[in-house]
Design a protein that fits this description.
DNA polymerase, domain 1; alpha/beta; Rossmann fold; 224 residues
Amino acid sequence: MNLYLFDVDNTMLDVDHLHRQAYEEMYEKVYNVKHSLSLPKGEERTTHNIIRCALTNNVPGKKIEEQMEEAVESMARLYMSRVNPLFVHTNVPHILGKLNERGMVGVFTGGARHITNVILKKTNLHERFHHVSTCDDAPTRKEIVKHAIENASLGRKFDKVFVIGDSPEDIEAAKSNNAVAVGVAMGYHDEETLRKSGADIVIKDWEDTEEVLEKLKGRILLNS
């Protein structure tokens, strides 16, 4: 049996256009600060860490932490009202169904659990996953993937573990957990960048079911 772990943003869904709105509305509503979404450079891009890094010069650290749960709840409400199934990349539900026939399918993400659950439910994907690991489970992407593998296994031994994401950070997280690194070129990084980052498999898009499933057999790896 194989384990297939999917990232969310850009890998399965096009939801990036809502992130800026969610963060900026939350900064003002919860922390009374007008601030643009700024992604930390060289830092973990998790919901919690993005908030900490963005507000560190404007809000005392204690206040940031005390209101973190409120901040996540505020963002979750925005996603609840604005996310819909049209955000799912073409053919993703069908691919997930096929992979569930082959093994176990889970999620790893730097998003907070409440936000992730809202997004997956609003896009009708939640029931397709056996397990969801988020930044509430571990502070770094590598550790989130490790948590996902450990919690999915529960004594099982997987033939292969595939970690499927759109960024070099996802590739690195896969490698650090001895998993097959699958890069999906539907985000900010093209196929060549993902290959150079060490991806074992690169998927351009999800539209050709047979091609995707053949690649996810993992018989021929780019970096083998």
